[in-house]
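Tokens in:
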């Protein structure tokens, strides 16, 4: 029986069953003896919830490891050091120890790992590699700790990352190590039965410390004993596997520093909180971040299989997407206006970055330089495959700086940098097309004049232009695409508005209502004179017949205000609507549609 359980799948299932049993028991114990987390102003949960879930996770992993998983020197070190971090976290749950005391405990655990010769072999200099490893272990431990801010988030992300690690260990033939991490995956899955929204138990610091340190140190299992696969894989693969906690920690730390807040201070400004602020449900926000973790794990697999240059290109694309999402989320307001004003007055760096973020021109230029390089590289890859060892690589390296300069100049001349991303429309596509076409023509002429076009393929430049146009349009539409991908937030408070006009103007008014919560409008429907539009649906709102019974429509939808979305309006109809609104105590406003945000009067 025990031999069967040594299989990673069986070991993981055993860990799952143990975790379910232990978590149920710990939850009952916590409620009985008062180990309950009560809601606080800087915490997300809204009702008392049992603590000590980390005890169940640790107990399940330790038990199955001791009974089933074959021992090795490395796995014993990882398990022992992680057990010590569990004790540090458990002590914090009971006594609420200071951050520097927790840091000392983390450094002791890291010292146990590196003291037994386990490290990331990045530089070849033993002392430097040791310090990098210590930074890695402490950083990931705290990243998981910070990520534990919403039901099921930290446990789910850690489980997804551990699945990637299990696959990598099994692929390397490290069955015993794969079984250990599989037990860890199973224990997290068993805990998630009780921790996913709505959670009935939290893991606490005992759990987050153990989970974070175990996850970080398990990465080292695949890099010991001469198994390293080169510097890119050693660095990129674990970073990508643990991308979500690394991104969230970096994102929150930078923004808190800019706001003058302590990075260790609790708050509702994490990535997950900002997604909820954009209109997602708590479950959807967590599932979206799980999806990012899965995507990062898949990307880590490809990075480990591809050549160095192709891996770097793939990572660059992923970084661009990540950066755009980060910029978008950073604009979500999580502090009140008074705090924002004080931060801008007292922090010159904050004020400068806010101004740059508003203009975004520096960011756009750097982004376009990367997009130009990636598009040119992609054109060569599509046409010639892996060309790094051929003469085409020399041609590429020699010409790419010229292309970057000429295409940026063409973009500037064509007016690519004059628009605002959130208002990018079809008319802007012609500007982007002109910029790409002009840039490609200049590039061909430049290569012809400098290098006589010897060895260069015309097909590369044609394909490069097509890829670059797609990348340029995609980057500019990114903010609108993100907004469209998110569910429409349903405001609970505000004036219920009926929009008169179901055309382009009405759609712009609707978008402004939904994107600008400060207006405090709840759009409930459209009315229009055009019989062809009656009964249609625009962004989930029905179009009613303006020639019908306006009183019945307003009564049915409980309308507080009618907003007219177009300029031309028959005087008789306008007079009739004014009288109706006055008699029924309904406000009436006209929207001024401009390129800038809609204004009302």
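Residues out:
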């Amino acid at each position: 029986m025990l031999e069967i359980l040594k299989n990673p799948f069986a070991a993981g299932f055993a860990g799952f069953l143990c975790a379910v049993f232990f978590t149920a028991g710990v939850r009952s114990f916590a409620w009985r003896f008062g180990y309950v987390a009560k809601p606080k102003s800087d915490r997300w949960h809204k009702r008392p919830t049992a603590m000590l879930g980390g005890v169940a996770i640790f107990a399940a992993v330790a038990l199955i490891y001791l009974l089933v998983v074959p021992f090795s020197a490395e796995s014993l070190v990882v398990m022992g050091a992680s057990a010590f971090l569990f004790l540090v976290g458990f002590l914090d749950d009971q006594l609420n120890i200071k951050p520097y005391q927790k840091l000392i405990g983390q450094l002791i655990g890291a010292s146990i790992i590196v003291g037994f010769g386990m490290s990331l072999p990045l530089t070849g200099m033993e002392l430097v590699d040791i310090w990098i490893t210590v930074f890695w272990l402490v950083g990931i431990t705290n990243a998981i700790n910070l990520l534990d801010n919403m039901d099921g988030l930290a446990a789910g992300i850690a489980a997804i990352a551990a699945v990637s690690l299990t696959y990598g260990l099994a692929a390397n033939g490290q069955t015993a190590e794969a079984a250990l991490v599989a037990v860890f995956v199973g224990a997290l899955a068993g805990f998630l039965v009780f921790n996913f929204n709505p959670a009935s138990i939290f893991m606490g610091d005992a759990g987050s410390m153990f989970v974070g340190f175990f996850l970080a140190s398990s990465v080292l299992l695949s890099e010991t004993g001469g198994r390293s696969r080169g510097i890119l894989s050693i660095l990129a693969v674990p970073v990508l596997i643990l991308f979500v906690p690394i991104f969230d920690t970096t994102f929150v730390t930078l923004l808190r520093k800019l706001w003058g807040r302590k990075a260790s201070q609790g708050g509702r400004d994490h990535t997950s909180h900002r997604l909820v602020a954009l209109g997602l449900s708590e479950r959807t926000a967590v599932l979206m971040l799980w999806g990012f973790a899965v995507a990062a794990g898949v990307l880590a697999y490809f990075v480990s299989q591809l050549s160095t240059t192709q891996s770097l290109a793939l990572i660059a694309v992923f970084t661009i997407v990540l950066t755009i999402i980060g910029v978008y989320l950073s604009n979500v307001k999580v502090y009140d206006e008074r705090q924002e004003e004080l931060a801008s007055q007292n922090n010159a760096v904050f004020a400068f970055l806010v101004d740059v973020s508003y203009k975004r021109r520096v960011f756009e230029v750097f982004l376009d330089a990367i997009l130009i390089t990636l598009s040119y590289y992609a054109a060569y890859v599509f046409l010639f495959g892996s060309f790094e060892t051929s003469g085409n690589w020399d041609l590429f390296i020699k010409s790419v700086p010229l292309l970057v300069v000429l295409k940026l100049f063409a973009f500037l001349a064509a007016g690519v940098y004059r628009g605002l991303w959130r208002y990018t429309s079809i008319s802007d596509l012609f500007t982007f097309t002109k910029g790409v076409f002009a840039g490609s023509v200049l590039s061909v002429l430049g290569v012809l004049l400098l290098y006589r076009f010897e060895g260069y393929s015309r097909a590369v430049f044609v394909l490069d232009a097509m890829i670059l146009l797609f990348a340029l349009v995609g980057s500019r539409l990114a903010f609108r695409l993100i907004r469209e991908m998110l569910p429409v937030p349903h405001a609970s408070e505000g004036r219920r508005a009926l929009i008169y006009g179901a055309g382009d103007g009405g759609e712009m008014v609707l978008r402004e209502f939904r994107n600008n919560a400060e207006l405090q409008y709840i759009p409930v429907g459209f009315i229009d004179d055009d019989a062809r539009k009656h009964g249609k649906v625009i962004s989930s709102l029905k179009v009613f017949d303006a020639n019908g019974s306006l009183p019945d429509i307003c009564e049915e939808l409980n309308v507080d205000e009618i907003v007219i979305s177009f300029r031309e309006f028959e005087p008789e109809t306008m007079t009739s609507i004014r009288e109706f609104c006055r008699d029924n105590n309904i406000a009436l406003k006209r929207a001024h549609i401009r390129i800038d945000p809609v204004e009302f009067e």
